Amino acid sequence: MRYTLLGFLLLGTFLSPAQVSNPNLQAMVDAERAFIAMAKEQNTRDAFLFFLSADAVTVGPDGPRIGTESIRSQPASEGWLNWEVAYCDIAASGEMGYNTGPWEFRAQKTDEKPVAYGEFHSIWKKQADGSWKNILDIGVRHAAPVERQSLATSQMPLTSAKHSSGSPAAILDLDKKFITLYEKKGDAAYNTFASKEIRFAREGELPIVSREDWDAYLKRSSFKMSDVKVMGGGVAESDDLGYVYGSSSVGVVVEGKEVVKKGTYLRVWKKEGGKVWRIVLDVVACR
Questions:
Q1: Could you tell me the residue range of the domain that residue 232 belongs to?
Q2: Where is the DUF4440 domain (predicted)?
Q3: Cα torsion at 280, 274, 243, 249 (round to 10°)?
Q4: 147 shares its domain with 194
Q5: What is the enclosing helix (H) or strand (E) of 72?
Q6: Of 33, 92, 183, 186, whose CB count within 10 A is highest?
């Protein structure tokens, strides 16, 4: 049975009726929902191949993986990866934004209970033909969520219509400045660069979306990053939203022993008030 993108967009909208007021943001959310619908109606592999760009960034065993060849080489699975958008935001220029929310996996589509849970984070970009492509998709695993998340967006939306040809090099340099401070001060570096709306995602942790969550996480966590390397990124045409991804060594404690794993990180930067760049999303995934 053949499906069109429009068909999946309509299906995705009906499956998840919550809406946002910004039409460009809604179009991006609808694209994510169409992606979700295709994963259910067909299979996860084909849905990823349809919606991801040819040079999309995903998580590999040794850090970021570029392109979709590894996905294409996998056989279609009977499993069902389902997810939903819980939070979204978009640049003032309306052509780049991000979604995040919970995912769950069932070994069979007919299974009542999931066997794995986590959080997804996707960067979307509008194409020349008006369609949307997922250009980066990074997820973490965590325990079953305590409660369902409802759709929300930033309380500080970007509204300036001025296009200033944002420079990817500038956002990469900004991230390197943060890394330099992180290497000196550790998590205290976030006090300088973090937005008050920052959302953290760490492998094995439920979403950290408040200062209270973050303080509690720091008290119990032994997580630390080293050998952090910037690999790429991009910025919106309005030069007010950008992202950076890279690799790192991640120290975690497993059964009482410290283990170092290869990690993939994502940071989304936002120019709040049109003046100051702040981190609004900070993700570290490791396999």
A1: 168-286
A2: 42-133, 171-279
A3: -50
A4: no
A5: helix 69-72
A6: 33
The closest alpha carbon to 87, from 38, 47, 140, 29, belongs to 29
Distance (Å, whole) CA 151 – CA 26:
11
| Short-list 101, 104, 86, CA closest to 39 | 104
Identify whether 163 is part of a domain.
Answer: no
Q: Assess whether pLDDT exceeds 90 at residue 104.
A: yes
Residue 115 covered by a domain: yes
Strands 224-235 and 241-254: antiparallel
Q: Does residue 123 sit within a domain?
A: yes
| DSSP three-state, residue 87 | strand
Helix H or strand E segment including 216: helix 211-220
Is pLDDT at 16 greater than 90 in this prediction? no
Instruction: Describe the crossing of helices 5-15 and 23-41 by its angle, rounded to 10 degrees.
Output: 100
CATH of the domain at 74: 3.10.450.50
Distance CA 282, CA 197 (A): 11
Question: Could you identify the residue written with the tokens 């009542």?
Answer: 112
Query: No. of H helices and E strands in the chain?
Result: 7, 13
pLDDT of 19-29, one tens digit each? Answer: 899 999 999 99
Look at the chain and report how many structural domains it folds into: 2
From the list 273, 287, 106, 121, the residue with the least C-alpha distance to 208 is 121
Rounded-to-integer distance, Cα 100 and Cα 87, Å: 5
pLDDT, tens only, 138-185: 999 999 998 888 899 999 999 975 656 678 999 999 999 999 999 999
Residue type present at position 189: A
Residue 1 makes CB contacts below 8 A (sequence gap 6+) with none
Q: Is residue 204 part of a domain?
A: yes
